[in-house]
Amino acid sequence: MTQILYNSTRDNQNTLTAAEAIVKGIANDGGLYFPQTMPEVNLDWDQLKDASYQTIAKLILGAFFTDFTEDEIAYCVDHAYDEKFDTAVIAPLKSIDEKVSILELFHGNTIAFKDMALSILPYLLTTAAKKLQIKEEIVILTATSGDTGKAALAGFSEVPNTRIVVFYPKDGVSEIQELQMVTQVGNNTKVIAVKGNFDDAQTKVKELFNDQALNAQQKNDGFVFSSANSINIGRLVPQVVYYVYSYAQLVKNNAIKAGEHINIAVPTGNFGNILAAYFAKMIGVPIEKLICASNRNNVLVDFFNKGIYDKRRPFYLTSSPSMDILVSSNLERLIYLLNNRQNLPTKELMEQLVKEGNYQINQTVKDQLHDFYASQADDTLTAETIKKVYQESDYILDPHTAVAYAVYQQYLNETNNEDHHNKTVIAGTASPYKFPESVLKALGVNTTELSGRELIDKLSEISQIPIPSAISNIFDAPIRHQEVVEIDAMKEAVLRFLAE
Ligand SMILES: *Cc1c(COP(=O)(O)O)cnc(C)c1O
After folding, report:
1. Distance (Å) from CA 213 to ligand 1 centroid
2. 110 within ligand 1 shell (Cβ under 6 A)
3. How far does residue 321's CA lie from ligand 1's centre (Å)?
4. Left, alpha or beta for 218 (phi > 0: left; psi -120 to 50: alpha)?
5. From ligand 1's centre to the CA of 36, what distance in Å?
6. Which residues, in sequence order, are bridge partners of residue 184?
7. Which pLDDT tens digits describe the chain residue by residue (500 residues)?
8. Is the CB–ligand 1 distance for residue 149 below 6 Å?
9. Ligand 1 touching residue 147 (CB < 6 A)
10. 114 flagged as catalytic
11. Who contacts 460 (Cβ-Cβ below 8 Å, separation ≥6)?
């Protein structure tokens, strides 16, 4: 097997092993780690169709992370994808009509797709640290606007040799999100509310990472800071697994013959999930179109259609908040790849984005975007889609997944069903239980009088889907975290926790 090394999108010369890239997260030059070559994976669908999620995960992770031993990969996979998922198949594929299946990526700890990567990242990270003989305890510092924090907490809870501190804006998250976080169990977890907004908290966390004196002192005391950021290659690669798995399931269900092309539609924010689908295509999964779906924050739609990325635009709060994003960090990896892995143009474009707020790709690069189709759905269309799919298929989409479904419909209309033979897999990124109010409103229920708990009960009554334990427990679970601090007291709060 050929060894796969990683380099920064901004420096091809400086190569790292996967373990080093996972521990480092982001390169010093600001670039993202990228495999120097794509692994050659033997995708034998006749065999893979009967393989478990864990078996496919071991195959894919082993192919990308060649410096990990087979035992190390198995340890990570088996600890990540276990009973914390509420289904043994981990990522069920639900066919909702003859052409469309929803790949349900929301059966983990926090009922959203970030669990797929954040369940395994702690194991990849601690295994990598061990390989590199890092002796210190790893301390994850995260600022969250709601979802990532809880998924990271759940992932790192009780993982040996790690601690995690999550900061959230006191008045900036939903009731359910706050409850999910402050009830988090695990002696190595700490959740702290801050008096300030998400940006304040995020800026302070970055400051702590760069605080040399603090880092030196912590190293002395046996701690090293790290982050669970979504651009870590240790989060991207585990996301390739479920696209391979979904294709194998389609073959198994006789929905397609091995080798037949499919489309993949992804509700997109930071461009991580859809990039993982592109990686799946590159290693040989027969994928034709990658359908990139945005909400009203349509910066990616303009990028794919005009070749211009321009973040200088209003920021909208939508019913699909995890896609409310103006800078899609993972797009840098696509830019790098389509620029034939040249560092200079990648770096120039990314620096221009920071300085000027926009950049334009050249025609040669633009011509290579044909694997993608991009469009958007606003909140009205998203709600209509939830209702329509419920009426026609008796399936309840969450608002994010509904955005992808709506954009997939636009794709069919615009292409006059030219590739009507293709089956499409839509990435189902959240359970409807995560957004009960938007979903119930879309279904025509008057929600004004309903409490958080009642919204959940109502949705369960309509959907007949059992309430996931991630949600049912939080209303009665003991509150374990109550600390509220000023922004300037965040550092002290971290130090207090580490001294415990
Ligand atoms: C994070 C998230 C997305 C966006 O995924 P990216 O990888 O950032 O593009 C979509 N839906 C949900 C529910 C999410 O939590």
Report:
1. 35
2. no
3. 9
4. alpha
5. 26
6. none
7. 689 999 999 999 989 999 999 998 888 898 999 999 999 999 999 999 999 999 999 999 999 999 999 999 999 999 999 999 999 999 999 999 989 999 999 999 999 999 999 999 999 999 999 999 999 999 999 988 778 899 999 999 999 999 999 999 998 887 788 999 999 999 999 999 999 888 788 888 888 888 889 989 998 999 999 888 888 999 999 999 999 999 999 999 999 999 999 999 999 999 999 999 999 999 999 999 999 999 999 999 999 999 999 999 998 989 998 898 888 889 999 999 999 999 999 999 999 999 999 999 999 999 999 999 999 999 999 999 999 999 999 999 999 999 999 999 999 999 876 666 799 999 999 999 999 999 999 999 999 999 889 999 999 999 999 999 888 888 889 999 999 999 999 999 999 999 98
8. no
9. yes
10. yes
11. 466, 467
List CB contacts of 8: < 8 A, sequence separation 6 or more. Answer: 14, 27, 29, 31, 32, 33, 34, 343
Q: Is the pTM of this model over 0.90?
A: yes
Q: How many CB atoms lie within 10 A of CB 361?
A: 20
Nearest CA to ligand 1 atom 2: 322
Our answer on whether the CB atom of 359 is closer than 6 Å to any ligand 1 atom is no
Question: For tokens 């004004």, what's the residue?
Answer: 448
The one catalytic residue in 84, 94, 114, 130 is 114
Our mutation pick for probing the ligand 1 site, out of 102, 103, 113, counting the most ligand atoms within 8 A of Cβ, is 113
How remote is the CA of residue 448 from the centroid of ligand 1, in Å?
Answer: 28
